[in-house]
Amino acid sequence: MPEEWYQAYIHWWKKRHDFSIQKEWLIFCTGVVPAISSMVRKLTTPAEKVLIQTPVYNIFFNSILNNGRQVLESPLLWDGQQYRIDFADLEYKLADPQTSLMILCNPHNPVGKIWDKETLSRIGELCEKYHVTVISDEIHCDLTAPGCSYTPFAAVSEACRRISITCIAPTKAFNLAGLQTAADETLRHKVWRGLNTDEVAEPNVFAAEAAIAAFEYGEDWLDALRAYIHDNKKAAAGYIEQYIPKAVLVPSDATYLLWLDIGKIVGSAEGAAEFIRAKTGLYVSDGGQYGKVGDHFLRINAACPRKILLDGLQRLAEGLTAYEERLTHLY
Question: Rounded to whole angstroms, how far apart are CA atoms 174 and 275?
Fold first, then answer.
């Protein structure tokens, strides 16, 4: 990798996130998902447990199950207004001797939660106490609402830095290639060996130059994008409140995703998502893919032109109304 590639990441994370990255921490990988799968294989043994906080990015399940490990869910608590971590449940499950790895999502996908420093510190303390390594997926970190910042897990404390591998990439913000950082030397060596064994650490010229261009020249564009997505979310919230009043849109400060509670309209979102697609052509994701606690939610992508977003919301309202009427007739 060219020296400019390393410096682009170092400068960006220092300027945007006040986190000083050392050059030797950086390891190129062809993508975050291949990296996570590789690390699951390298840092755990078959049948061990990998903890995730659901509802969470559905591919985490694949990276765990496809490699012969057990998924251990520590569900986030939803009170109808916001999500928070159930620390009693988290500690109980981290204390299980079979739990050797935790995949943290910061900011959290799909709920759009930015975990604060105190919360991250507490997670780090528990994981260190129970000898659990943390993979922190921070791929959405540059897509926060204007005025909102995120704290990198590795920047919280020496303990958090020592026990963790951070997955960062311009993929979501700029739609480019990814990389990983790992601060502890032994841990970093294991990650490096795992990525090379799996042949996912080979760079290409385009990936390097594109990342450099994004981080060196894309700041103004990204800030405009963040503002646009934020306005999209506000427009969606207003539309849903007016035309789908039984639904509850989860407030979020990060990502371009909408996480919509439709439990008061339907039972399971799986049938609703399929019906809406067939009825209106709108493709939304049923929340059950992200863990059982998401089975009455829909995940919607708001990263699109406003006109398309409003068209999609109209289809959503039409589809949910028709589906609710269908359920009423059935029962």
Answer: 33
Residue 70 structure tokens? 């057990």
Q: Mean pLDDT throughout 218-247? A: 97
For the record, the structure tokens of 22 come out as 């050392």
Burial of residue 330, with CB atoms counted within 10 A of its CB: 0-12 exposed, 13-18 middle, 19 or more buried: exposed
Q: Is 19 helix (H, G, I), strand (E, B) or coil?
A: coil
* Contact between 140 and 254 (Cβ < 8 Å): yes
The two beta strands, 257-261 and 49-52, are unpaired
Alpha carbon 113 to chain centroid distance? Answer: 9
* CA–centroid distance for 67 within its chain: 20
Length of the chain: 331
Whether the pLDDT of residue 178 is over 60: the answer is no
CA dist 13 to 17, 32, 138, 155, 216, Å? 5, 17, 12, 11, 12
Are 29 and 200 in contact by the 8 Å Cβ rule? The answer is yes
The residue with greater pLDDT, 122 or 80, is 122
Q: What is the DSSP string of 187-220?
A: HHHHHHHHHHHTT-----HHHHHHHHHHHHH-HH
Mean pLDDT confidence for 42-60: 97
What are the structure tokens assigned to 290, written together?
Answer: 């992200």
The whole-number pLDDT of residue 321 equals 95
Rg of the chain, C-alpha, whole Å: 20
Query: Does the predicted model carry a pTM greater than 0.85?
Result: yes
CB 166 within 8 A of CB 154: yes
* Cβ neighbours of 179 (radius 10 Å): 26
Residue 11 to residue 19: CA distance in whole angstroms: 9
